[in-house]
Amino acid sequence: MTKDRKYFLTWLIIITAIGCALRLFRLNEIPFTFDELSALTRTRYNNLHDLIHLGVAGDGHPAGVQVFLYYWTRIFGEAEWVVKLPFIIAGILCIPLIYRIGTRWFGYDAGITAACLMAGLQFTVMYSQIARPYISGLFLVLLLVAILNELAIEVTYKKLLAFAVVLALCAYNHYFSVLTAGCVVATGFFIIERKGLLKYVLSLALAAVFFMPHLHLFLGQLKLGGLEWLGPPTRSFIPNYLYYIFNFSNYILAALALLIVQAIYLSGFKINGEKIKYRFVALSWFLIPLVVGYLYSKYRAPVLQNSVLIFSTPFLILFICSFIKLPFSPFRSIEIAGLMLVLVVSLGWERSYYKIFYKAETEMFARHISGYERAYGSKVAAVVNATPAYLDYYKKKYPTGWSYQTFDSISDNVAWRKWLDTCEANYLVLCNPPREWGNEYLAIAREYFVFEDSVYNGFTTDIYILYMPTAKANGECVCGPPVSPSKLISTYGLLDSTGLSGYLNAYKPAEVRLGNYLSSFNDFYTLCDTPGRPCLFKSAASSMHLNAKMTLNASVEVHVDSVGLEGSLNMRFMRFGKVLQERQSLFQSFVPRDTGWYHIYTTARLYHAPFDEADSIIVDLNAKPGACLKIRNFALEVFPDNPILYSLIKK
Predict the structure, then answer these.
(1) Which residues are CB-contacts of 185 (< 8 A; sequence separation ≥ 6)?
(2) Strand partners for 214
(3) How confident is the model at residue 336, as a pLDDT?
């Protein structure tokens, strides 16, 4: 063993140990994510046939990991650390694998730097702790590349068999892992000696044979298209993803930049031509899955997420590390240790990874429901946006109470208002009220429970505990107008915009404008036969000083009479006169058939809205032609949103 090889192997052992510690830290406290609980509930079948046809076919993922979990949990149980352990081990093994590939392609300096990044980046640490087909696919892809490197030296039947098995496992693991593996397979035709190509083709045929039992399932899943809940990628997806890979950390990027500048100086500003071939390969393997996923999601059906690109991300890391050259010891050791320190500090403190990730949504639901029911008993009502089977997992851990209902049984805002009308509780625990675009459920709840006891903000988790000291009196709701959430940033009314304020300023309250008119009487306004869509609010987006961690809440009261009410309250994000995105709240979906005044809400969590691309924001009404509409108490509120809602995957 050469001196250099021994030196770098020593550092590899140290880096792997650190990577192991980062993944095993407080192992028994790592909770299940929503996706993991979904996978676990789909393992509880009596036989493999039911597992495949009921638990896998409609999921959109290959059967490999689901079948593995089926047998693993039957043998070892469903404790969180037990289920996660094989995936953590796979994540740890990725560290020496990327070192081996990097060293083979670009030398020891690149290999050890890539190992540092694999060990300490949040992307790889987090998915090592999630029992889903991401880190397992990363391990399999890296193993496939390592075997291909050996085939490039010598083609043997043992290596070909290993290549065929691992390639088939990539296909059974995830469709994006086999897409990345396809890039590896294609490259094999260019780097394997011509006399071994026929045997190489036979190994590919053998892999196809291994995958044949899954073919009918794959063809069925292909018809599923994309993910219904996922939107097409925006133009900010790729920049955000590239920044995400490196923890959104300028410190990590600066450290890599300094290492590259150092390498340029140490090499005398010369380009190493031997590395160009593998740089092209690495960059191609990274870009092809990204481009294919982006175009498919844009023009066919949405499938692109950060998670599905984990299989190709190591090749961007290798491409960057190929430009790094470390000095001789002792400075070399200082730089390796320094880079590893920056990664650990970024993960634990800059990103607050353990503080955030170790409080997953479903367990937090269970903890809050159980805690409040233990404290206040029957005075607590809990409504949860989750599948009961997922919550059931935590009943043993949090055994108290457990009286709750899901939003699935409350199909719309009218049903929600009727449920609140009959609710006798003093405390309302709302766990992730539906937030596909906004949060009207929360706004309506604040009409009935006007005080805020506490709010829990977590990663993809919102828990609101609202209360009313005297919720009911003689069967009637003792509640006032909706109370604005705490820490309200700003409120806009009709006179704060370029909408109806023109009418209001031009006419006295008692006057009536004939034809298309607006009149004010007893603090409400009547709109009749207004052309187009009467504008309640319009403002330049830039003047509102918005950011992604805010929510807009537009509300107006409308009067319902015996004729009924048709129309909508709308919020539009505009750019050059074109609608980028629109939220429409139908009056009928907010009010029952009874007469009287009712609040209509349209809310926008700016995490989900193109506010940064919009030049104006408009709130308007769309009423039934020929009808008069009475409105009052319009307001557009801006208030803080959950600051860490997507903090693990966004800046």
Answers:
(1) 167, 204
(2) none
(3) 96
Strand 596-605 relative to strand 427-431: parallel, antiparallel, unpaired? unpaired
Helix, strand, coil percentages (3-state) for the chain, rounded to 5, are: 50, 15, 30
Three-class SS of residue 435? coil
Nearest to 240 by CA among 311, 333, 309: 309
Residue 573, CA distances (Å) to 314, 389, 498, 507, 542 in order = 38, 38, 15, 29, 12
- The confidence score (pLDDT) of residue 470 equals 65
**pTM to 2 decimal places:** 0.88
* More confidently predicted of 377 and 124: 124
CB atoms within 10 A of CB 355: 13
SS3 612: coil
Closest CA to 72 of 93, 86, 57, 90: 86
The CA–CA distances, whole Å, from 77 to 40, 70, 82, 84 equal 11, 10, 7, 11
**The CA-based dihedral angle spanning residues 601, 607, 610, 615, taken in that order and rounded to the nearest 10 degrees:** 80
CB 651 within 8 A of CB 248: yes
pLDDT interval class at 511 (50, 70, 90): very low
The residue ranges of DSSP E strands in 399-541, in sequence order, are 405-406, 427-431, 451-458, 461-467, 472-473, 476-477, 490-492, 517-521, 524-528, 535-540
Instruction: Indicate whether 497 pLDDT > 60.
Output: no
Q: Looking at the chain, how many residues does it have? A: 651
* Contact between 48 and 55 (Cβ < 8 Å): no
CA 274, 277, 283: angle at the middle one, nearest 5? Answer: 130
Judge contact between 617 and 539, C-beta under 8 A: yes
- SS3 (DSSP) at 101: helix
Query: How many percent of the chain have pLDDT more than 90?
Result: 50
206-213 LR contacts (CB < 8 Å, sep 24+): 206/160, 206/161, 206/164, 207/163, 207/164, 207/165, 207/167, 207/168, 207/171, 210/164, 210/165, 210/168, 211/168, 211/171, 211/172
Q: Whole-number mean pLDDT of the chain?
A: 86
Tokens representing residue 629 in the block: 């509409």
Q: What pLDDT score does 561 carry?
A: 76
Q: What angle (nearest 5°) sits at the alpha carbon of residue 283, between those of residues 282 and 286?
A: 90
Give the β-pairing of 567-575 and 616-623: antiparallel
Q: Are 592 and 559 in contact (CB under 8 A)?
A: no
Cis peptide before 289 (omega within 30 of 0): no
Element (H, E) at 556: strand 550-560
| Ramachandran angles phi, psi of 554, nearest 5° | -95, 135
SS3 for 235? coil
- How far apart are the C-alpha atoms of 251 and 345, rounded to whole Å? 10
Stretch 430-445: mean pLDDT, rounded? Answer: 82
For CA atoms 71, 76, 82, 87, the dihedral sign is negative
Beta bridge partners of 554: 602, 636
Instruction: Give dist(CA 308, CA 462) in Å, integer.
Output: 26
573-628 pLDDT tens trace:
999 989 999 988 888 888 777 778 888 999 999 988 888 889 999 998 887 776 77
Q: How far is CA 94 from CA 80, 89, 90, 233, in A?
A: 22, 9, 6, 29
